[in-house]
Design a protein that fits this description.
Layout: H1 2-20, H2 26-40, H3 45-60
Amino acid sequence: MAVSVSAVVILLAITIMLMRFGYIRGGSALVCILLGFFLASTGLAPAINQSAQALAHAVSAIRF
């Protein structure tokens, strides 16, 4: 649960920054958000969730 909340916050921050710097407009951001909601209800959702968790685990295992 903590990984998905963190991912949502990071992706929301990126979307806001892209809107602020003019790379995407409000309509495009809305389409991206809707795509995320519709994608979450497809059969790909478990694979995407597993990939995101694996990436989060890999990043957390990096030692500096």
